[in-house]
Amino acid sequence: MTTYYQAFIANEFTDAAGGDRRPVRNPATGAVWAEVPECGPEDARRAIDAAEAARRDWAALPSVKRAEYIYRIAEALRTERDHFARLLVMEQGKPLAEAGAEVDDTIRYMTYAAEAARRIQGEILPSDLPNEQLFIYRVPYGTTLGICAYNYPLALIGRKLGPALVTGNVMVIKPHEATPVTGSEFCRLVRDAGLPAGVVGLVTGGGAELGAALVSDPATRLVSVTGSTRAGQAIAAAAAQNLAALSLELGGNAPFIVLKDADLDAAVEAAVVARYANAGQVCICNESVLVEDSVAEAFTEKLLARAAQVKLGDPMQDAGMGPVSTEGALSRIEALVAQSVDAGARVALGGKRGSGDFASGNWYEPTILLDAQADTPAVSEEIFGPVMPVVRIGGLDDALRITNARPDGLSAYLWTRDAGSYMRAIHEMETGTIFLNKGISGYVQGYHNGHKRSGLGGEDGIHGLEGFLQKRTVYMQY
User: Which GO terms describe its biological process (predicted)?
Assistant: First the structure.
């Protein structure tokens, strides 16, 4: 039996104009358990028209009044935490505890944004002339678009919507086609919180046609995207026609660098957690280990022993690592492992799809590849799955060369006790986030952004908040 979840336009739950529907599959079983509207350009136009109708009145509200609505949504989400956690397990596949943590993160993102309502600041500058004053105001863009990836379907909504709304923007949300259900249910909380019609909209459906209609609409003034580099490039090209502002959190390929003076036990634990959390579907995950030769044997032995403890398990029971979210992702992981083995890498753990109780659905075993090189496909490409290739390096010079040669630069990990090494990495490593002697994490007051092809802009912290504001300069004579 399937449940139907609708799009949300002008505070009304609605079908697609053409009446078509799209199935939603449970990644743990492959079974269809839900349906959503297959929205198209006409639906995109309706959602944007509703947002345009609401934006001026919403921007005119005092920021603290806008924040009150955000607090209401966050509190409702806290009340329904278990419900949303279970929906996340069913549509995305992460274990129940991780799903609950995602709900908590969503509440945290929205609460942080609401708390910033009294911190939206302008500037007063001296004039060159007498009897004149110079002001710089920070004002909303207006109608904005939030395009979300499938790895964190709910948290990405909260992360985009909170700062967008508190700064006076309105937003149309486009969830990933594989994970639209929590977004639809989230809009129920939006409606119940009493937000004016059009302030928040949500359209569901396939990415290309619907996304293009939303991005290229002349009324769309800012596009916030979390997704692949390829998707970000296509969206940037479509947004260029209207010169819409962009916030692009795109693909990454984080190296996990272990130098000879590292705390090996701590590094191993961090490497395993940062690789297999959410089945490796985290943009800042440990994508490959670069370990210094002199400690490679000891580190690898510990790594294999710890990784062998990670087992596949029913995500609804928190029994182990869950599946990857889509069949397409699973096929890509399988192909990258095969290509890497052909190129000389060796499977030391895992290396295949699930079997037995895990034969149905998108299961892939926790995997470690040894004898990998910098140009091994599983190293040079973003895997976005539970595969950890290990590359031996001569030291920090090799690590920096491999890291900086990549076209992306989202995050990196460095384990060393040497202050000179990590200060050199801070200054030379071309990446937006560096974890020094620390595992995977992210704080709402930080700033999560990429360098190079990993994108531009971000939504966390005060810098993320400012990304939803444009400047208006006023020269006033008196």
Answer: gamma-aminobutyric acid catabolic process
Residue 199's nearest CA partner among 45, 54, 13 is: 54
Q: Is 249 a catalytic residue?
A: yes
Amino acid identity, position 470:
Q
The alpha carbon of residue 200 and the mean position of all alpha carbons in its chain are separated, in whole angstroms, by 20
Residue 265, CA atoms < 13 Å, CB-side half-sphere: 0
Among the listed residues 102, 249, 365, 459, the single catalytic one is: 249
Q: Is the pLDDT of residue 207 over 80?
A: no
Give the 3-state DSSP-derived string for the chain, with helices as H, strands as E and coil as C.
CCEECCEEECCEEECCCCCCEEEEECCCCCCEEEEEECCCHHHHHHHHHHHHHHHHHHHHCCHHHHHHHHHHHHHHHHHCHHHHHHHHHHHHCCCHHHHHHHHHHHHHHHHHHHHHHHHCCCEEECCCCCCEEEEEEEEECCEEEEECCCCCCCHHHHHHHHHHHHCCCEEEEECCCCCCHHHHHHHHHHHHCCCCCCCEEECCCCHHHHHHHHHHCCCCCEEEEECCHHHHHHHHHHHHCCCCEEEEECCCCCEEEECCCCCHHHHHHHHHHHHHHHHHCCCCCCCEEEEEHHHHHHHHHHHHHHHCCCCECCHHHCCCECCCCCHHHHHHHHHHHHHHHHCCCEEEECCCECCHHHCCCCCECCEEEEEECCCCHHHHCCCCCCEEEEEEECCHHHHHHHHHHCCEECEEEEECCCHHHHHHHHHHCCCCEEEECCCCCCCCCCCCCCEECCEECCCCHHHHHHCCEEEEEEEEEC
pLDDT tens-place string over residues 32-90: 999 999 999 999 999 999 999 999 999 999 999 999 999 999 999 999 999 999 999 99
Other Cβ atoms within 10 Å of 442 Cβ, number: 16
pLDDT at 383: 96
Per cent of the chain over pLDDT 90 is 99
Look at the pTM and tell me if it is higher than 0.90: yes
Q: Residues 362, 323: contact at Cβ < 8 Å?
A: yes
